[in-house]
Amino acid sequence: MTQADIIIIGSGMGGAMIASSLAPSGARILILERGERLAPSPQDRDADAIFRTGHFRDQEQWHDGADKPFSPGNYYMVGGNSKFYGAALIRYRAEDFRPIAHLGGTTPGWPISYDTLEPYYAQAETLFEVRGRTGEDPTEPWRSAPYPQPAIADEPDIARFRQALAAQGLNPSAIPLAVDLDRWAEGGKTTWDGHPGTNGGKRDGEHALDTALAHLNVELRTGTRVTRLRAGADGTVNVVEAIGRDGPVRLTARIVILAAGAVQSAALLLRSADEARPTGLANRSDQVGRNFMNHNCSAVLGLHPFRRNRAIYQKTLMLNDFYLEGGPQNAPLGNVQMLGKITGPILAATSGLPRPLAYWIAARSLDVYVMSEDLPNPESRVTLRGDGIRLNWQRSNMRAHAALVAKVRTVLRRAGCPITLAKAFDRRTPSHQCGTARMGDDPATSVTDPLGRCHDHPNLFIADASLLPTSAAVNPALTVAALALRSGQHIRDTILRDASVVAPA
């Protein structure tokens, strides 16, 4: 058996951020990651490798609600899915923490407010050197500090699009981005959205993890897949079972932090059922795996047949005019932001269009990402199928999403794009999976308390998107990071303050 003070399972955004928060404590921290570090390769900027052949994607299969197999397209590596994210680090709006009436139902609200999380948003933005600009977005919540860096400038064709939006009375704003543009461009003139970061130009989970690994008390062990947690009669999780490079291993720690991602964390808790807990660990409430959410997303392309879009990265502009209102009965619709520039190879690989047509469209298109909130539903859930994963995602609030797509098409036409094309993302695209171990004050209806500590297990914390009670309608990465920092501070200030918790060196 191997001893540590803290074991963190997973090195994605949540695991990396809580490791960064805990590292200065001096506690011996062991981070377990099933994948490896992603080394620079020719495939990093190869659209065919990324989007057509799936060079970086794991080949595992899950089953859907009808028991049909599908490839979920997740990434298992140091940094997790954030290695391929669009680096948009957007705060949830203050209203997202309160109940909101949507066309598809009313959200339950959070056990904490925006004000509670705001200091941690600011800390996370500092760590990621977020580039942004205030004062443009009418839905922007209050801030205790400005963005650490100025916003990345629009390319000329995107600047013209911004002007066309403003001429319609809309309020385009800069996307807060965790990108060092000059450094990113050293690896090639491509967008970063959907492309792996291997040269440090994109600040992702691995960037945060490296701040933790700068401390000698922190160890990262890759190639180690956790298979089961075991708990004693008092609920304390006393053994972490894993398969490493040399075979099975049993590990112990005073604190265990689960940050494997919304689906994998839920599956691990369910897989860890024992005689005393036949429905899984942390599952007295029967909420583990339930309330799975995955944003309703579509790509909408606007183009003029005689006008080219010469943007390389494109992803600098967002629109929240329809975030809190604008739908039928003035209901909220969601967020609109630029996609990373879709090129001919990307469009051909993802649409099935003939390559000449795909290249013609991509050379002229403004590519927009339309995102609406998926509402929590206890029947939308992760369960086990044997030892594998069954994901019965039951989409909700699609009427709002359809209304937002229609609005965006109208906006694009008014901006000078007579042709618009739209395609919804399907379940094979991991569009911000969350909600399967939601936080709450009531142990009967939630899995963890508002600090991420499992109600049923005094030394088990969760620090990934599983915790989110609602999905909101913006990218969740910054919120996951802020929650992890808050949980880390709680562990430092309470559990680790007792010197007896930290094992001697």
UniProtKB/TrEMBL annotation:
Keywords of the record: FAD, Flavoprotein, Oxidoreductase
Residue intervals of the Glucose-methanol-choline oxidoreductase N-terminal domain: 113-296
Cofactor or coenzyme needed: FAD
Domain Glucose-methanol-choline oxidoreductase C-terminal per the UniProt entry, residue ranges: 394-484
Entries under InterPro entries matching the protein: FAD/NAD-bd_sf, GMC_OxRdtase_N, GMC_OxRtase_C, P2Ox-like
Gene Ontology terms for molecular function: flavin adenine dinucleotide binding; oxidoreductase activity, acting on CH-OH group of donors
Enzyme nomenclature, EC number: 1.1.3.43
Family: Belongs to the GMC oxidoreductase family.
Protein name: Paromamine 6'-oxidase
